[in-house]
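Hi there, hope your week has been kind to you so far. No rush at all, and the record is pasted right below.
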Amino acid sequence: MSSPGRPPASSLAALARMKSARRRDTAPEVALRARLHRMGLRYFVDRAPLPGAHRRADVVFPRAKVAVYLDGCFWHGCPDHGTQPKANAAWWAAKIDANRRRDTDTDQRLARAGWTVLRFWEHEDPDGAAQAVQGAVARQRAAAAPRHGADRVPTWH
């Protein structure tokens, strides 16, 4: 049961693990979203921040232009918890490296379009991540808000 370019699973157990891996709604994502929701933040889930892009963020605040990614330690090569499979090792090393290069490219594309990108590892504290997201959203909203006050030049004379 392999697709073109992908080696067959090394065992039935490995096949079962790969099949059970969720693309969205993982426990770390749900934990982060619950905290963001309790903070009063509303967002989109599993959405491409840029039109026409097929790269989806885990949590998106389109008006504030904030994209949040929760990267899995295995899939994105966490320096602390990432593992290197022994079976099909070269293929997996190339796959994880490609994922990391794609992540960097995504971050750069979004930054050029004026987005703030936040990336967290799946093992990071969801409370700390939620506070970082809340701060980034607040900063982006403040930067985009019309300015009122002493520095405003009146239009009447």
